[in-house]
Design brief:
By secondary structure, the protein is mainly beta. The chain has one domain: Hypothetical Protein Pfu-838710-001 (Beta Barrel), CATH 2.40.320. It has two helices and nine strands, in the order E-E-E-E-E-H-E-E-E-E-H. The protein has helices spanning about 70-75, 140-145, and strands at about 1-10, 25-30, 35-40, 45-50, 60-65, 85-95, 95-105, 110-115, 130-135. Strands 1-5-4-3-2-6-7-8 form an eight-stranded antiparallel barrel. It is globular, with a radius of gyration of 15 Å. The chain starts with a strand and ends in a 6-residue tail after the last helix. InterPro entries: CYTH-like_dom_sf, CYTH_domain, NeuTTM/CthTTM-like. This is CYTH domain-containing protein. It holds the Pfam family CYTH.
Length: about 150
């Protein structure tokens, strides 16, 4: 079992550096509640992910590669609509990799940066383009953005 320790921030769009090539992500959610079940297609790879209840900044995470055709079928047949559509950019800064997500579709206009840590109190340096922390704000969780898209926040 793996543990995910993640902090999430809004972004100053005007301060972003030139961005590398993105991963194109389309993902959907099968269930709500305390366990989150996510189906994700990232470029030409597909994954099924189960995430447990968040305790502080930490939660259990199980992720498995699945056939692309299975993921496409799950998205169409099992997942709640609309999907989360975004472009993800990986940006290195001060020894950490930041995941910058620029949302499209129902959540167009939302830009979020995430950093995964080894422990909840691990120190890190924020890039100048990182703004307000929203780690504890459930409105910015992908599973919630399906039910309440960014334009409706």
């Amino acid at each position: 079992m793996s543990k995910e320790i993640e902090r999430k921030f809004l972004v100053y769009k005007e301060k972003l550096p030139p961005l590398p090539a993105p991963k194109v992500i389309k993902q959907g959610y099968i269930s709500g509640g305390e366990t989150t079940v996510r189906v994700r297609i990232s470029n030409e790879k597909a994954f099924l992910t189960l995430k447990g209840k968040t305790k502080g900044l930490t939660r259990s995470e199980f992720e498995y590669a699945i056939p692309l055709s299975d993921a496409e079928a799950m998205l169409q047949e099992l997942c709640i609509k609309p999907f989360i559509e975004k472009k993800r950019y990986l940006i290195e800064h001060a020894g950490h990799t930041w995941e910058l997500d620029i949302f499209e579709g129902e959540n167009e206009g939302l830009i979020v940066a995430e950093i995964e840590l080894e422990c909840e109190d691990e120190p890190f340096e924020k890039p100048e383009w990182v703004a307000e922390e929203v780690s504890d704000d459930p409105r910015y969780r992908n599973a919630n953005l399906i039910k309440h898209p960014y334009g409706h926040l």
